[in-house]
Protein: Zinc finger BED domain-containing protein 5
Amino acid sequence: MAPPRKKLKAVRQYSVDYIAFGFVPSPADRTRPMCLICSNVFSNEGMKPSRMRDHLEKMHSDKKDKPAEYFKKLRDDREKTTPSISSPRPFRLLLPR
Structure:
């Protein structure tokens, strides 16, 4: 008798369609989605569109009927105000007088 095969776990990737649920790629791991509203990062298992829709409906019910354009604007506003890791922030070197 052959040994039982292990079931391979599907590794999901972030999809641009997730913006309709208010999710963008996480800054720390671009393959995982992050909620634009509460900054919650989902695991591989939570990356199913039904789970993201449930999160939006249960946690942010006031925003569940918003169109994708609303979330795109929210994403763009967040990108303007949040400095990215790759772009250096200007700093001032303070020396004693």
